[in-house]
């Protein structure tokens, strides 16, 4: 007599495998999103370094760039201004950008328009808030979850936090 699996045993094994896969896959997708978020934070840190190099090259003045380069053609885009400092366009794309901001605007990140052309360290905004709460760049959209974005601040720290806690 041959030893073989019965149909019931085979169905039980398939059911167990599907239950295990169902339990493991969500955690794998969460891990993948954490990886994308970390990559995005790294991109923002590199763009901050480009920002600080630009500011040091231009006597403390922040770059004047277009908020939406597809609409405002008068000012240069963030990519045009920072490209000489980063040498690759990959840092301008958030890996979680599924809304194609990178393709439309050249960057997945928005620049703080209140810094546009201003000298760092001057004005009421800088003295009241301090450099730890003034953001330089952040995600255009909620790429990393509802109401949550990655930010890089004027003091150089990058963080992942709810947008409701951010002050302009």
How would you sum up the global shape? elongated
Oligomer: single chain
Intertermini distance = 78 Å
How many strand units? 4
Q: State the low-pLDDT regions, or none.
A: none
Structurally, the number of domains stands at 1
> Which strand-content bin applies to the residues?
5-15%
Biggest sheet overview: 4 strands, antiparallel
Number of helices: 4
Using the CA coordinates, give the radius of gyration.
Answer: 23 Å
Q: Helix/strand/pairing class, anyone? A: alpha+beta
> If strands are numbered along the chain, what order do they take across the biggest sheet?
1-2-3-4
- Written as H for each helix and E for each strand, in order along the chain, the element string is HHHEHEEE
Q: Please state the average pLDDT score.
A: 83
Helix percentage = 40-55%
Walk me through what this model shows:
The protein is an alpha+beta fold and 168 residues long. The chain has one domain. It contains four helices and four strands. It has a four-stranded antiparallel beta sheet with strand order 1-2-3-4, with helices on one face. The protein is elongated, with a radius of gyration of 23 Å. The longest helix has 51 residues, at 7-57.
């Amino acid at each position: 007599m041959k030893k073989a699996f019965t149909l019931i045993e085979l169905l039980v094994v398939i059911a167990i495998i599907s239950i295990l896969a169902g339990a493991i896959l969500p955690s794998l997708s969460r891990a993948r999103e954490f990886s994308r978020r970390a990559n995005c934070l790294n991109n923002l840190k590199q763009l901050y370094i480009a920002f600080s190099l630009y500011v040091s090259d231009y006597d403390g003045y922040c770059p004047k760039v277009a908020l939406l380069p597809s609409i405002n053609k008068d000012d240069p885009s963030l990519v045009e201004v920072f490209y000489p400092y980063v040498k690759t366009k990959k840092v301008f794309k958030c890996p979680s950008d599924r809304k194609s901001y990178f393709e439309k605007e050249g960057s997945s990140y928005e620049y703080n328009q209140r810094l546009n052309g201003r000298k760092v360290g001057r004005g009421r905004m800088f003295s009241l808030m301090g450099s730890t709460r003034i953001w330089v760049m952040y995600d255009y959209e909620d790429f990393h979850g509802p109401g949550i974005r990655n930010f890089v601040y004027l003091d150089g720290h990058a963080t992942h936090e709810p947008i409701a806690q951010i002050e302009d």
